[in-house]
Amino acid sequence: MNKKLFLKRGREDSIKRFHPWIFSGAVKNMDSGVNEGDVVAVYSSEGEFLCRGHYESGSIAVRILTFADEEIDAQFFKNRISEAYCLRKKYILPSFAGEEGRVYRLVHGEGDLLSGLIVDIYGDLAVLQAHSRGMGRSWRLIAKALTDVCDNIKYVYNKSSSTLPKGNSEGDGWLSEKRELPVSVCEYGNLFEVNPEDGQKTGFFIDQRENRFLLQKYSQGASVLNLFCYTGAFSVYALRGGAAKVESVDSSLKAINLANRNVELNFGNIGNHRGTVADIFDYLKKTEDSYDLIVLDPPAFAKHLGAVRNALQAYRRLNAKAMEKLNPGGILFTFSCSQAVDRQQFLQSVFSAAATAGRQASILHHLNQPADHPVSIYHPEGNYLKGLAVYVK
After folding, report:
1. Which CATH number goes with the domain that contains 237?
2. Angle, helices 233-240/253-267, rounded to nearest 10 degrees
């Protein structure tokens, strides 16, 4: 029997509009003995049942999992993961992936009604990432559901040590027998090596798939600079599109080694790709080269609302420096993955960057996360990836 949590009077309206979070300021009281990660049944101040979800002591007090009076058990996770898998198998996967070596996001948190959970698929390997203690405590149920429901999934790896709240006692590890790594995956005909044990996030940035494919179409004969390159995926797509030369830059030697391996995996030893270890701002300040196409895909500059102002200033400076290095008629692919920065704020920062650089600019494309990263209409915060393809005169 789940313990009960009661809301203050009038604070149930957002729940009745199906928003998946309950903030701590809305909580009136709860049963004694509720621990971090427990499933709680949520009631209005008048005693009306509203929902069930995982309790946490932070600003988000409850991550809602269901608005129905149902148990959060093994069958619940099996049903939710089955719904997510059927959506992708019917509408999303046929457009970009074959049966073997497919790479896609299977569970995208609130967009799949599993707040606090991310699951990425790399061939026969599922990598899960918990963002709440409740999901962290449900690892075994989730792993069992994944192998029961999904075709070809044989291995499950937990990559949650960096995303769970502080105080988590468990590290990353296998929830199945161990798979040999890295795993080779195929995305639009391009091959990549993925190693979740020592990679960022779940091992690869799946959310940029469609944006990489778009960049490929603009790359014929171009000189390309890929900043914050990580796996070098944008570089591989640029080379696939016929780029004359590509430079991949990252502050991490490990990232440059990975980018070089992925380029070699697709094209062998070629002379028109170079990997450079450098601080991005220093590189833009010191290089005398100019480019036809530049990619800016930095890490999140704002982890929370309090950091937004500084983040916007950083985006402006970074984009201005990049525009200064673009040849006339060049194109800038620029992104923000900071959930705290909204689309209009990011657009304004790029506008300010163009003015600072003294360049005329036109937006060719508004860029987003792909369909396997669905956004709940009741939770627009899930639309975290914002990007622009900008023509710079």
Report:
1. 3.40.50.150
2. 30
Domain membership of residue 196 (yes or no) is: no
- How many domains does one find in the chain? 3
Q: Is residue 195 part of a domain?
A: no
Out of 16, 42, 66, pick the residue that ends a domain: 66
pLDDT in tens, 221-232: 999 999 999 999
Please answer whether residues 176 and 154 qualify as being in contact, where contact means their C-beta atoms are separated by less than 8 angstroms: yes
Rg (CA), the chain: 22
Among all chains, which residue has been given the structure tokens 């525009």? 323
Closest C-alpha to 387, from 331, 317, 308: 331
User: Which helix (H) or strand (E) element contains residue 142?
Assistant: helix 139-149
Angle subtended at Cα 189 by Cα 185 and Cα 192, rounded to the nearest 5 degrees: 30
Q: Can you give the length of the chain in residues?
A: 393
pTM: 0.94
Strand partners, 225: 247, 294
* 273-311 pLDDT per residue, tens: 999 999 999 999 999 999 999 999 998 775 666 677 888
- Let me know the angle formed at the C-alpha of 360 by 356 and 361, rounded to the nearest 5 degrees: 100
Rounded to whole angstroms, the Cα distance separating 353 from 326 reads: 13
Q: Which of 149, 151, 171, 173 has its CA nearest to residue 162?
A: 171
Instruction: Write out the residue range of the structural domain in which residue 103 sits.
Output: 74-187
